[in-house]
Amino acid sequence: MTGQSGFDPAALERFADLLVGFGANVQAGQIVAVGGEIGKEEVVRAIAASAYRHGAQFVDVAYFDPHVKRARLLEAGRDTLGFVPSWYGERALALGEQRCARVALSGPVAPGLFDDVDPALVGLDQLPFVRETITTINERTTNWTIGPCPSRQWAHLVHPDLAQDEALALLVEELTHVLRLDEADPVAAWRERADMLIEAAGRLTGPRFDALRFEGPGTDLTVGLLPSSRFIAARFETADGIVHMPNLPSEEVFSTPDPERTEGVVRATKPLVLGGSVIRGLEVEFRGGRAVRIDADENADVLRGYAARDDGAARLGEVALVDGDGRIGRLGTTFYDTLLDENAASHIALGSSYAFCVEDAADLERANTSQIHVDFMIGSDEVTVHGLRADGTSRPVLSAGRWQL
């Protein structure tokens, strides 16, 4: 018998154990912070139970209610929408200071909730994201993971032509596949895939490309790299040596770009869900590293609001490549969830960079900083990527979803 999430009890326990035991790699005696929206209670409770089975000292659950956010957007003063109580950030920092583990759940629970709200207002309130989380990530003080949580509402968004129960069953089937839970040993399968991605990251780092160039329909974008930018993938390690998988599923190889050297135009290849709104037909133009034009068929003002948050919000903090061997892209499904869609296609991110992708202290001082980090997808089989050397020569990197290195 399936529950709220569409998982049967055994599958739900297996899913929770994958996120807790392998993804976050929860250690005995740790405090475990679990985050999810109202509507994900069944999965949150399963994660809490798994965390205690893995020896957690305490599980601290934080629920976010998007309906309360909607009320704020409609009723509160515009000049208050960027305000975040100090204890939100203090909690994020305390999780790092106390070397806690973190498990978060992605997947929309109320699609379309903000469709009748001014997109410019939606861009002002970025909760549940808080900027201090980026600090904790860069300092590598928590072992953490994010995984997708199915729901009927999300299933209807992804598969609108199916009956509700059929849509949920199909979404659960797809998530089971991309999470490799259909393997006899999902952990072994993930370790094998992570090894492949880490190898690809090494091959990308080795040539020390000066820039990457993306070319495809509506896209001609050059993303400069810092001299000591390195590509990493899949497997993270905390400052205390705890290995973890920050995203499940994870199919990307990524690095930190030079925030002053992005030039050209890029067209998103998948919709972007941001602040509860769906941005379709996104096109962004960069000059001198800054996004000078943000257009879209729908809800461009949401991303414009995010990009105006601070000086670094309109510059890039991440460039990521995704090959065609991952399971998400092969499905051909648009999930309307960044965790999944960004692992189906190469992508870039406006906002804060990842310090651990930069090897030289002088370069790290140049890396982008911001209160935001917003990924959007720019890759497809029609988009080719070349590595550009400082002497002007180039080398193919990714074509039709296959590594060329």
Automatic annotation (TrEMBL):
Its cofactor is Co(2+); Mg(2+); Zn(2+). GO terms for biological process: proteolysis. Pfam families: Peptidase_M29 (PF02073). Gene3D superfamilies: Thermophilic metalloprotease (M29) (3.40.1830.10). This is Unannotated protein. PANTHER family: AMINOPEPTIDASE (PTHR34448), AMINOPEPTIDASE AMPS (PTHR34448:SF3). Keywords: Aminopeptidase, Hydrolase, Metal-binding, Metalloprotease, Protease. It comes from freshwater metagenome. Belongs to the peptidase M29 family. GO terms for molecular function: aminopeptidase activity; metal ion binding; metallopeptidase activity.
